[in-house]
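User: Design a sequence. Structure:
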Protein backbone atom coordinates (compact mmCIF):
# COMPACT_ATOMS: atom_id res chain seq x y z
CA UNK A 1 0.00 0.00 0.00
CA UNK A 2 2.81 2.37 0.94
CA UNK A 3 4.59 1.71 -2.37
CA UNK A 4 1.39 2.40 -4.35
CA UNK A 5 0.89 5.72 -2.50
CA UNK A 6 4.50 6.69 -3.15
CA UNK A 7 4.19 5.80 -6.82
CA UNK A 8 0.98 7.84 -7.10
CA UNK A 9 2.62 10.82 -5.43
CA UNK A 10 5.60 10.62 -7.75
CA UNK A 11 3.31 10.35 -10.75
CA UNK A 12 1.27 13.38 -9.66
CA UNK A 13 4.44 15.37 -9.06
CA UNK A 14 5.76 14.46 -12.51
CA UNK A 15 2.40 15.33 -14.06
CA UNK A 16 2.31 18.76 -12.42
CA UNK A 17 5.92 19.47 -13.41
CA UNK A 18 5.08 18.47 -16.96
CA UNK A 19 2.11 20.85 -17.01
CA UNK A 20 4.25 23.69 -15.64
CA UNK A 21 6.98 22.97 -18.20
CA UNK A 22 4.50 22.87 -21.07
CA UNK A 23 2.88 26.10 -19.87
CA UNK A 24 6.30 27.74 -19.70
CA UNK A 25 7.14 26.59 -23.22
CA UNK A 26 3.76 27.80 -24.45
CA UNK A 27 4.39 31.20 -22.89
CA UNK A 28 7.79 31.33 -24.55
CA UNK A 29 6.27 30.58 -27.95
CA UNK A 30 3.08 32.65 -27.56
CA UNK A 31 2.66 35.35 -30.18
CA UNK A 32 3.80 38.75 -28.92
CA UNK A 33 1.28 41.38 -27.91
CA UNK A 34 0.83 43.72 -30.86
CA UNK A 35 -0.85 46.97 -29.89
CA UNK A 36 -2.91 49.18 -32.12
CA UNK A 37 -1.01 52.36 -32.99
CA UNK A 38 -2.76 55.72 -33.12
CA UNK A 39 -0.32 58.25 -34.54
CA UNK A 40 -1.73 61.79 -34.24
CA UNK A 41 0.19 64.36 -36.24
CA UNK A 42 -0.39 68.12 -36.28
CA UNK A 43 1.12 70.64 -38.70
CA UNK A 44 3.43 73.59 -37.97
CA UNK A 45 2.81 73.35 -34.23
CA UNK A 46 5.06 75.08 -31.69
CA UNK A 47 5.28 73.23 -28.38
CA UNK A 48 4.28 76.55 -26.79
CA UNK A 49 0.71 75.96 -28.00
CA UNK A 50 0.25 73.11 -25.51
CA UNK A 51 -0.55 73.71 -21.87
CA UNK A 52 1.41 70.68 -20.69
CA UNK A 53 4.70 72.16 -21.92
CA UNK A 54 4.53 74.99 -19.42
CA UNK A 55 6.16 77.41 -21.86
CA UNK A 56 2.87 78.81 -23.10
CA UNK A 57 0.87 81.88 -22.08
CA UNK A 58 -1.37 81.03 -19.11
CA UNK A 59 -4.50 81.43 -21.24
CA UNK A 60 -3.52 78.59 -23.60
CA UNK A 61 -5.65 75.57 -22.68
CA UNK A 62 -5.39 72.12 -24.28
CA UNK A 63 -7.06 69.82 -21.72
CA UNK A 64 -7.28 66.67 -23.83
CA UNK A 65 -3.67 66.71 -25.01
CA UNK A 66 -2.57 67.66 -21.50
CA UNK A 67 -4.46 64.64 -20.14
CA UNK A 68 -2.66 62.46 -22.65
CA UNK A 69 0.66 63.81 -21.36
CA UNK A 70 -0.34 63.09 -17.76
CA UNK A 71 -0.93 59.46 -18.75
CA UNK A 72 2.34 58.97 -20.60
CA UNK A 73 5.75 60.44 -21.38
CA UNK A 74 6.27 63.95 -22.70
CA UNK A 75 9.52 64.67 -24.51
CA UNK A 76 10.87 68.16 -23.89
CA UNK A 77 12.23 68.30 -27.43
CA UNK A 78 12.03 66.17 -30.57
CA UNK A 79 13.38 66.83 -34.05
CA UNK A 80 11.33 65.11 -36.75
CA UNK A 81 12.26 67.31 -39.69
CA UNK A 82 12.93 70.90 -40.70
CA UNK A 83 9.69 71.33 -42.64
CA UNK A 84 6.55 69.55 -43.82
CA UNK A 85 7.68 67.15 -46.53
CA UNK A 86 11.03 65.95 -45.12
CA UNK A 87 9.43 65.23 -41.76
CA UNK A 88 6.79 63.05 -43.41
CA UNK A 89 9.35 61.37 -45.66
CA UNK A 90 11.45 60.41 -42.64
CA UNK A 91 8.42 59.03 -40.80
CA UNK A 92 7.43 56.97 -43.84
CA UNK A 93 10.90 55.49 -44.39
CA UNK A 94 12.71 55.58 -41.04
CA UNK A 95 15.53 57.53 -42.68
CA UNK A 96 16.81 61.08 -42.40
CA UNK A 97 16.11 63.42 -45.31
CA UNK A 98 19.44 62.80 -47.04
CA UNK A 99 18.70 59.05 -47.04
CA UNK A 100 15.23 59.15 -48.63
CA UNK A 101 15.96 57.83 -52.11
CA UNK A 102 14.28 58.99 -55.35
CA UNK A 103 12.00 61.56 -53.70
CA UNK A 104 12.04 64.95 -55.39
CA UNK A 105 10.05 68.11 -55.91
CA UNK A 106 8.44 68.11 -59.36
CA UNK A 107 5.97 70.32 -61.18
CA UNK A 108 3.95 73.09 -59.60
CA UNK A 109 4.49 73.38 -55.84
CA UNK A 110 3.79 71.30 -53.80
CA UNK A 111 4.16 68.75 -56.58
CA UNK A 112 6.51 65.92 -55.72
CA UNK A 113 7.26 62.37 -56.74
CA UNK A 114 9.10 59.20 -55.70
CA UNK A 115 9.73 55.68 -56.97
CA UNK A 116 8.01 53.21 -54.57
CA UNK A 117 10.55 50.53 -55.53
CA UNK A 118 13.53 52.70 -54.57
CA UNK A 119 11.63 54.39 -51.76
CA UNK A 120 9.38 51.84 -50.01
CA UNK A 121 7.31 53.02 -47.07
CA UNK A 122 7.09 51.49 -43.60
CA UNK A 123 3.26 51.15 -43.56
CA UNK A 124 3.49 48.61 -46.40
CA UNK A 125 5.56 46.40 -44.10
CA UNK A 126 3.01 46.78 -41.29
CA UNK A 127 0.33 45.78 -43.79
CA UNK A 128 2.30 42.77 -45.05
CA UNK A 129 2.99 41.60 -41.50
CA UNK A 130 -0.54 41.51 -40.16
CA UNK A 131 -1.65 45.07 -39.47
CA UNK A 132 -4.55 47.01 -40.96
CA UNK A 133 -3.18 50.38 -42.04
CA UNK A 134 -5.06 53.64 -42.47
CA UNK A 135 -4.22 57.26 -43.11
CA UNK A 136 -6.61 60.18 -42.69
CA UNK A 137 -5.84 63.83 -43.39
CA UNK A 138 -3.08 65.77 -45.08
CA UNK A 139 -0.78 64.00 -47.55
CA UNK A 140 2.33 65.88 -48.62
CA UNK A 141 4.80 63.28 -49.90
CA UNK A 142 4.44 62.65 -53.63
CA UNK A 143 1.40 62.49 -55.89
CA UNK A 144 1.20 58.73 -55.23
CA UNK A 145 -0.49 58.44 -51.81
CA UNK A 146 -0.02 54.66 -51.69
CA UNK A 147 -3.60 53.41 -51.37
CA UNK A 148 -3.70 49.63 -51.83
CA UNK A 149 0.06 49.32 -51.41
CA UNK A 150 0.80 51.11 -48.14
CA UNK A 151 -2.70 51.76 -46.85
CA UNK A 152 -5.78 49.55 -46.56
CA UNK A 153 -7.99 52.57 -45.91
CA UNK A 154 -7.33 56.19 -46.79
CA UNK A 155 -9.06 59.56 -46.81
CA UNK A 156 -6.46 62.13 -47.81
CA UNK A 157 -6.06 65.70 -48.87
CA UNK A 158 -3.39 65.06 -51.48
CA UNK A 159 -1.74 68.45 -52.00
CA UNK A 160 0.96 67.28 -54.46
CA UNK A 161 -1.65 65.70 -56.74
CA UNK A 162 -3.94 68.73 -56.66
CA UNK A 163 -1.86 71.91 -56.42
CA UNK A 164 -4.91 73.96 -57.42
CA UNK A 165 -6.48 72.96 -54.08
CA UNK A 166 -3.26 73.11 -52.05
CA UNK A 167 -4.24 76.26 -50.17
CA UNK A 168 -7.53 74.88 -48.86
CA UNK A 169 -6.25 73.77 -45.50
CA UNK A 170 -9.52 74.20 -43.63
CA UNK A 171 -12.56 74.22 -45.95
CA UNK A 172 -13.59 73.22 -49.49
CA UNK A 173 -11.07 70.42 -49.75
CA UNK A 174 -10.69 68.03 -52.66
CA UNK A 175 -10.24 64.75 -50.80
CA UNK A 176 -9.35 61.30 -52.08
CA UNK A 177 -11.42 58.47 -50.58
CA UNK A 178 -9.64 55.17 -51.21
CA UNK A 179 -8.34 56.45 -54.53
CA UNK A 180 -11.48 58.35 -55.62
CA UNK A 181 -11.47 62.17 -55.61
CA UNK A 182 -14.41 63.96 -54.03
CA UNK A 183 -14.96 67.66 -53.18
CA UNK A 184 -15.79 67.83 -49.48
CA UNK A 185 -17.45 70.48 -47.35
CA UNK A 186 -16.93 71.09 -43.65
CA UNK A 187 -14.09 72.14 -41.38
CA UNK A 188 -11.16 69.82 -42.09
CA UNK A 189 -10.00 69.29 -38.49
CA UNK A 190 -13.49 68.19 -37.45
CA UNK A 191 -13.87 65.97 -40.52
CA UNK A 192 -10.60 64.16 -39.87
CA UNK A 193 -11.45 63.63 -36.19
CA UNK A 194 -14.87 62.19 -37.05
CA UNK A 195 -13.52 59.77 -39.66
CA UNK A 196 -10.73 58.66 -37.33
CA UNK A 197 -13.27 57.98 -34.56
CA UNK A 198 -15.38 55.89 -36.92
CA UNK A 199 -12.34 53.89 -37.98
CA UNK A 200 -11.31 53.27 -34.38
CA UNK A 201 -14.80 52.02 -33.57
CA UNK A 202 -14.63 49.41 -36.31
CA UNK A 203 -15.66 50.93 -39.61
CA UNK A 204 -13.60 50.12 -42.72
CA UNK A 205 -11.31 47.57 -41.06
CA UNK A 206 -10.93 43.92 -40.09
CA UNK A 207 -11.82 43.62 -36.37
CA UNK A 208 -9.48 40.64 -35.98
CA UNK A 209 -6.31 42.53 -36.87
CA UNK A 210 -4.35 45.18 -34.99
CA UNK A 211 -4.42 48.55 -36.72
CA UNK A 212 -2.06 51.42 -37.46
CA UNK A 213 -3.78 54.78 -38.02
CA UNK A 214 -1.89 57.91 -39.04
CA UNK A 215 -4.18 60.88 -38.34
CA UNK A 216 -2.67 63.92 -40.06
CA UNK A 217 -4.25 67.25 -39.22
CA UNK A 218 -3.59 70.21 -41.51
CA UNK A 219 -3.93 72.53 -38.53
CA UNK A 220 -2.33 74.76 -37.46
CA UNK A 221 -0.57 75.48 -40.75
CA UNK A 222 -1.30 78.83 -42.38
CA UNK A 223 -3.74 80.31 -43.21
CA UNK A 224 -4.33 79.20 -39.61
CA UNK A 225 -8.11 79.36 -39.67
CA UNK A 226 -9.93 78.63 -36.41
CA UNK A 227 -13.28 76.85 -36.46
CA UNK A 228 -16.17 79.32 -36.47
CA UNK A 229 -17.03 78.32 -32.90
CA UNK A 230 -13.54 79.30 -31.74
CA UNK A 231 -12.90 82.42 -33.82
CA UNK A 232 -12.32 85.36 -31.48
CA UNK A 233 -12.63 83.36 -28.26
CA UNK A 234 -9.09 84.23 -27.16
CA UNK A 235 -9.25 87.86 -28.25
CA UNK A 236 -7.75 90.34 -25.83
CA UNK A 237 -5.12 88.04 -24.35
CA UNK A 238 -1.56 89.33 -24.35
CA UNK A 239 1.35 87.13 -25.43
CA UNK A 240 4.92 87.55 -24.16
CA UNK A 241 7.10 88.87 -26.97
CA UNK A 242 10.39 87.04 -27.67
CA UNK A 243 13.32 89.24 -26.74
CA UNK A 244 15.00 88.75 -30.13
CA UNK A 245 11.93 89.26 -32.31
CA UNK A 246 13.51 92.17 -34.20
CA UNK A 247 16.57 90.33 -35.30
CA UNK A 248 19.50 88.08 -34.42
CA UNK A 249 22.58 88.95 -32.42
CA UNK A 250 25.86 89.44 -34.30
CA UNK A 251 27.13 85.93 -33.52
CA UNK A 252 24.41 84.24 -35.60
CA UNK A 253 24.81 83.04 -39.22
CA UNK A 254 24.46 85.63 -41.96
CA UNK A 255 21.21 84.32 -43.47
CA UNK A 256 19.22 85.45 -40.42
CA UNK A 257 19.63 89.03 -41.59
CA UNK A 258 17.28 88.17 -44.48
CA UNK A 259 14.57 86.28 -42.60
CA UNK A 260 13.19 89.02 -40.35
CA UNK A 261 9.40 88.97 -40.32
CA UNK A 262 8.41 91.64 -37.80
CA UNK A 263 8.23 95.41 -37.52
CA UNK A 264 7.48 97.82 -34.68
CA UNK A 265 4.11 99.59 -34.94
CA UNK A 266 3.38 103.16 -33.95
CA UNK A 267 1.87 101.74 -30.76
CA UNK A 268 5.19 100.09 -29.92
CA UNK A 269 4.07 96.51 -30.56
CA UNK A 270 5.44 93.94 -33.05
CA UNK A 271 3.48 93.23 -36.21
CA UNK A 272 4.08 91.11 -39.29
CA UNK A 273 5.85 92.77 -42.19
CA UNK A 274 5.57 89.78 -44.54
CA UNK A 275 3.95 86.38 -44.80
CA UNK A 276 0.67 87.87 -43.62
CA UNK A 277 -2.08 85.50 -42.62
CA UNK A 278 -5.78 85.69 -43.31
CA UNK A 279 -8.73 84.76 -41.13
CA UNK A 280 -9.93 82.10 -43.54
CA UNK A 281 -9.36 80.55 -46.93
CA UNK A 282 -10.64 83.73 -48.52
CA UNK A 283 -10.54 87.32 -47.45
CA UNK A 284 -7.98 90.05 -47.14
CA UNK A 285 -4.40 89.33 -46.16
CA UNK A 286 -3.24 91.19 -43.05
CA UNK A 287 0.49 91.92 -43.48
CA UNK A 288 0.49 94.21 -40.43
CA UNK A 289 -1.24 91.79 -38.08
CA UNK A 290 -0.45 92.58 -34.45
CA UNK A 291 1.67 90.02 -32.59
CA UNK A 292 -0.92 89.38 -29.88
CA UNK A 293 -3.66 88.89 -32.46
CA UNK A 294 -1.51 86.46 -34.43
CA UNK A 295 -0.66 84.34 -31.38
CA UNK A 296 -4.34 84.36 -30.38
CA UNK A 297 -5.36 83.16 -33.84
CA UNK A 298 -2.81 80.33 -33.80
CA UNK A 299 -4.06 79.12 -30.43
CA UNK A 300 -7.71 79.43 -31.45
CA UNK A 301 -6.92 77.13 -34.36
CA UNK A 302 -5.45 74.62 -31.90
CA UNK A 303 -8.72 74.32 -29.99
CA UNK A 304 -10.35 72.10 -32.62
CA UNK A 305 -7.27 69.86 -32.69
CA UNK A 306 -7.48 69.43 -28.92
CA UNK A 307 -11.18 68.63 -29.20
CA UNK A 308 -10.36 66.12 -31.93
CA UNK A 309 -7.84 64.39 -29.68
CA UNK A 310 -10.52 64.16 -27.02
CA UNK A 311 -12.91 62.65 -29.57
CA UNK A 312 -10.55 59.88 -30.71
CA UNK A 313 -9.56 59.08 -27.12
CA UNK A 314 -13.25 58.75 -26.26
CA UNK A 315 -13.68 56.40 -29.23
CA UNK A 316 -10.83 54.24 -27.97
CA UNK A 317 -12.32 54.10 -24.50
CA UNK A 318 -15.86 53.39 -25.70
CA UNK A 319 -14.64 50.54 -27.90
CA UNK A 320 -12.51 48.98 -25.17
CA UNK A 321 -9.23 49.57 -27.01
CA UNK A 322 -7.64 52.30 -24.91
CA UNK A 323 -5.40 50.00 -22.91
CA UNK A 324 -4.01 48.13 -25.92
CA UNK A 325 -3.32 51.16 -28.09
CA UNK A 326 0.01 52.94 -28.34
CA UNK A 327 -0.94 56.61 -28.71
CA UNK A 328 1.50 59.18 -30.03
CA UNK A 329 0.84 62.89 -30.39
CA UNK A 330 3.33 65.05 -32.28
CA UNK A 331 3.72 67.46 -35.22
CA UNK A 332 5.88 67.65 -38.32
CA UNK A 333 7.97 70.42 -36.73
CA UNK A 334 7.59 73.58 -34.71
CA UNK A 335 7.03 77.11 -35.94
CA UNK A 336 8.72 80.33 -34.90
CA UNK A 337 6.30 82.89 -33.48
CA UNK A 338 8.78 85.74 -33.36
CA UNK A 339 11.74 83.86 -31.88
CA UNK A 340 14.98 84.90 -33.64
CA UNK A 341 12.85 87.22 -35.78
CA UNK A 342 11.03 84.34 -37.50
CA UNK A 343 7.51 83.73 -38.63
CA UNK A 344 8.36 80.38 -40.21
CA UNK A 345 9.87 76.93 -39.63
CA UNK A 346 13.05 75.28 -41.08
CA UNK A 347 15.79 77.11 -39.12
CA UNK A 348 17.67 74.92 -36.58
CA UNK A 349 16.29 76.49 -33.40
CA UNK A 350 13.97 74.74 -30.98
CA UNK A 351 11.21 77.29 -31.51
CA UNK A 352 11.19 76.67 -35.26
CA UNK A 353 11.86 72.93 -35.60
CA UNK A 354 11.23 71.14 -32.30
CA UNK A 355 7.96 69.20 -32.32
CA UNK A 356 5.84 68.43 -29.29
CA UNK A 357 5.94 64.69 -28.58
CA UNK A 358 3.77 62.68 -26.18
CA UNK A 359 3.68 58.87 -25.97
CA UNK A 360 1.07 56.89 -24.03
CA UNK A 361 0.82 53.12 -23.73
CA UNK A 362 -0.92 51.86 -20.61
CA UNK A 363 1.21 49.55 -18.52
CA UNK A 364 4.19 49.84 -20.87
CA UNK A 365 5.10 53.52 -20.64
CA UNK A 366 5.22 55.28 -17.25
CA UNK A 367 2.64 57.95 -16.52
CA UNK A 368 3.27 61.65 -16.09
CA UNK A 369 6.99 61.57 -16.84
CA UNK A 370 9.11 64.03 -18.80
CA UNK A 371 12.09 62.96 -20.90
CA UNK A 372 14.84 65.52 -21.43
CA UNK A 373 16.62 63.40 -24.03
CA UNK A 374 15.51 64.35 -27.57
CA UNK A 375 14.59 61.92 -30.33
CA UNK A 376 14.25 62.21 -34.10
CA UNK A 377 11.85 60.80 -36.71
CA UNK A 378 13.77 57.57 -37.44
CA UNK A 379 13.93 56.90 -33.68
CA UNK A 380 10.15 57.12 -33.46
CA UNK A 381 9.58 54.78 -36.40
CA UNK A 382 12.11 52.31 -35.01
CA UNK A 383 10.08 52.31 -31.78
CA UNK A 384 6.83 51.67 -33.68
CA UNK A 385 8.38 48.72 -35.49
CA UNK A 386 9.89 47.16 -32.37
CA UNK A 387 6.62 47.62 -30.48
CA UNK A 388 4.58 46.04 -33.28
CA UNK A 389 7.15 43.29 -33.97
CA UNK A 390 7.42 44.43 -37.59
CA UNK A 391 10.74 43.89 -39.35
CA UNK A 392 11.95 46.32 -42.00
CA UNK A 393 14.06 44.93 -44.88
CA UNK A 394 16.11 48.09 -45.40
CA UNK A 395 18.48 50.07 -43.22
CA UNK A 396 16.78 52.66 -41.05
CA UNK A 397 18.56 55.45 -39.21
CA UNK A 398 16.77 55.22 -35.87
CA UNK A 399 18.09 54.24 -32.45
CA UNK A 400 16.37 51.87 -30.04
CA UNK A 401 14.66 54.31 -27.66
CA UNK A 402 12.86 51.67 -25.59
CA UNK A 403 15.24 52.35 -22.67
CA UNK A 404 14.04 55.97 -22.67
CA UNK A 405 10.38 54.94 -22.67
CA UNK A 406 11.01 52.49 -19.84
CA UNK A 407 12.86 55.07 -17.75
CA UNK A 408 12.42 58.58 -19.20
CA UNK A 409 14.45 60.18 -16.41
CA UNK A 410 17.54 58.03 -16.83
CA UNK A 411 20.85 59.88 -16.66
CA UNK A 412 23.06 57.35 -18.46
CA UNK A 413 21.71 57.98 -21.97
CA UNK A 414 24.59 59.23 -24.12
CA UNK A 415 23.37 58.66 -27.68
CA UNK A 416 23.46 61.85 -29.80
CA UNK A 417 20.48 62.97 -31.89
CA UNK A 418 21.08 64.09 -35.49
CA UNK A 419 18.78 65.96 -37.85
CA UNK A 420 19.75 67.12 -41.33
CA UNK A 421 18.18 69.79 -43.51
CA UNK A 422 18.86 69.64 -47.24
CA UNK A 423 16.16 72.08 -48.40
CA UNK A 424 14.16 70.50 -51.26
CA UNK A 425 16.72 67.80 -52.06
CA UNK A 426 16.59 64.13 -51.05
CA UNK A 427 18.64 60.98 -51.46
CA UNK A 428 21.20 61.04 -54.26
CA UNK A 429 20.47 64.73 -54.87
CA UNK A 430 22.21 65.41 -51.54
CA UNK A 431 25.46 63.65 -52.42
CA UNK A 432 26.92 67.01 -53.44
CA UNK A 433 26.32 70.25 -51.55
CA UNK A 434 24.97 72.86 -53.98
CA UNK A 435 26.44 76.30 -54.43
CA UNK A 436 23.41 77.82 -56.17
CA UNK A 437 19.86 78.64 -55.09
CA UNK A 438 19.21 74.99 -54.17
CA UNK A 439 21.26 75.55 -51.02
CA UNK A 440 18.62 77.89 -49.56
CA UNK A 441 15.54 76.70 -51.45
CA UNK A 442 13.50 76.20 -48.26
CA UNK A 443 12.58 79.57 -46.72
CA UNK A 444 16.06 81.00 -47.24
CA UNK A 445 17.66 78.67 -44.69
CA UNK A 446 20.82 76.93 -45.97
CA UNK A 447 21.52 73.22 -45.61
CA UNK A 448 22.69 72.21 -42.15
CA UNK A 449 23.46 69.32 -39.85
CA UNK A 450 22.18 69.71 -36.29
CA UNK A 451 23.26 67.54 -33.36
CA UNK A 452 21.97 67.31 -29.80
CA UNK A 453 24.21 65.73 -27.18
CA UNK A 454 23.16 66.12 -23.58
CA UNK A 455 22.33 69.74 -22.88
CA UNK A 456 24.25 71.03 -25.90
CA UNK A 457 23.12 71.71 -29.44
CA UNK A 458 25.60 72.03 -32.31
CA UNK A 459 24.68 73.38 -35.76
CA UNK A 460 26.91 73.24 -38.81
CA UNK A 461 25.52 75.37 -41.64
CA UNK A 462 26.85 73.97 -44.91
CA UNK A 463 28.02 77.33 -46.23
CA UNK A 464 31.75 78.00 -46.75
CA UNK A 465 33.22 80.12 -43.99
CA UNK A 466 29.98 80.29 -42.01
CA UNK A 467 29.74 80.56 -38.25
CA UNK A 468 29.09 77.34 -36.36
CA UNK A 469 26.52 77.40 -33.58
CA UNK A 470 26.75 75.95 -30.07
CA UNK A 471 24.09 76.41 -27.40
CA UNK A 472 23.72 75.33 -23.79
CA UNK A 473 20.01 74.56 -23.75
CA UNK A 474 19.83 74.30 -19.97
CA UNK A 475 21.37 77.69 -19.32
CA UNK A 476 20.08 79.31 -22.51
CA UNK A 477 16.87 77.56 -23.67
CA UNK A 478 16.03 80.43 -26.03
CA UNK A 479 19.35 79.98 -27.88
CA UNK A 480 20.31 83.62 -27.58
CA UNK A 481 24.05 83.18 -26.96
CA UNK A 482 26.20 81.31 -29.47
CA UNK A 483 29.08 79.74 -27.53
CA UNK A 484 30.98 78.54 -30.60
CA UNK A 485 33.50 81.39 -30.60
CA UNK A 486 34.16 81.39 -26.86
CA UNK A 487 37.60 79.95 -25.99
CA UNK A 488 36.35 78.04 -22.94
CA UNK A 489 34.10 75.97 -25.24
CA UNK A 490 36.73 75.25 -27.91
CA UNK A 491 37.28 71.61 -26.94
CA UNK A 492 33.54 70.96 -26.72
CA UNK A 493 33.08 72.48 -30.18
CA UNK A 494 35.72 70.15 -31.63
CA UNK A 495 34.10 67.13 -29.95
CA UNK A 496 30.58 67.96 -31.19
CA UNK A 497 31.93 68.65 -34.67
CA UNK A 498 33.47 65.16 -34.65
CA UNK A 499 30.30 63.55 -33.30
CA UNK A 500 28.26 65.19 -36.04
CA UNK A 501 30.56 63.82 -38.72
CA UNK A 502 30.38 60.37 -37.13
CA UNK A 503 26.57 60.46 -37.19
CA UNK A 504 26.55 61.66 -40.80
CA UNK A 505 28.72 58.68 -41.71
CA UNK A 506 26.53 56.28 -39.72
CA UNK A 507 23.49 57.50 -41.65
CA UNK A 508 25.26 57.29 -45.04
CA UNK A 509 25.36 61.01 -45.82
CA UNK A 510 27.56 61.18 -48.91
CA UNK A 511 28.14 64.93 -48.55
CA UNK A 512 30.09 64.33 -45.33
CA UNK A 513 33.30 63.99 -47.34
CA UNK A 514 32.87 67.44 -48.88
CA UNK A 515 31.80 69.58 -45.94
CA UNK A 516 32.75 73.23 -46.49
CA UNK A 517 35.22 74.57 -43.96
CA UNK A 518 33.66 76.58 -41.18
CA UNK A 519 34.73 80.03 -40.05
CA UNK A 520 36.70 78.50 -37.17
CA UNK A 521 38.49 75.77 -39.15
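Assistant: Done.
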Amino acid sequence: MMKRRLSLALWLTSFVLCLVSNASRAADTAPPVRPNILFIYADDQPYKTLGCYGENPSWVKTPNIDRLASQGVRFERSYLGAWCMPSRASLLTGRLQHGVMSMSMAGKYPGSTYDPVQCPFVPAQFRAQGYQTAQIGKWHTGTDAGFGRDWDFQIVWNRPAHPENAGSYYTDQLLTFNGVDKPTAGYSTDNYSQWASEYIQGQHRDPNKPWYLWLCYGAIHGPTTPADRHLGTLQGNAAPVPVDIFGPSPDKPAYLQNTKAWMLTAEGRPALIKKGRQAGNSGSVEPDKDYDAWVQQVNECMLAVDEGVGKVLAALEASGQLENTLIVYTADQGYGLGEHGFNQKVAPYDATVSSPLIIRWAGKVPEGKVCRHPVNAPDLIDYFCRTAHVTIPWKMHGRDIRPLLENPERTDWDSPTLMTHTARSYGAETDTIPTDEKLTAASGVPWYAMLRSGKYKYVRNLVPGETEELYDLEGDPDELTNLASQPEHASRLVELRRMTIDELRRTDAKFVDALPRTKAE
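The chain has ten helices and 20 strands. The radius of gyration is 25 Å.
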